[in-house]
Amino acid sequence: MGGVAGRYPHHRCHQWAHEGASKAAQLGFVRASATKLTPRGVTINAVLPGNFMTEGLADLGQDWVDGMAAPIPQARLGSVEDIG
Questions:
Q1: 23, 48 in Cβ contact below 8 A?
Q2: Is there a contact between 5 and 13 (Cβ–Cβ < 8 Å)?
Q3: CA 7 to chain centre
Q4: Which of 23, 45, 46, 66 could covalently link to 30 via disulfide, CB atoms 3.0 to 4.6 Å apart?
C-alpha cells in the first residue's frame, strides 16, 4: 500500500494523513470482502491509484510536484487522460 505519506516523508507528511487513512480503509474493505465472498466464487479486485496532478497539488508549487514525481518510473504524476 502506497501513498503520499509513505513515499514522501520529507514533504510535510502530516498534511496527508487523510490520504493514507482512506487508502488503508479501501484496502481493508477489499480484503474483508474478498475473505467473505471468495468462497462463493466472487472475485474481488481493487485499484488504489497513485498520485494524480490536481489543482490542489499544483497549488503546492513546482518543487513539490517534482519531488512527488521523482520516484515514479515515468517521472510524472498521473493525469485524467491516463484513466481513459
A1: yes
A2: yes
A3: 10
A4: 46
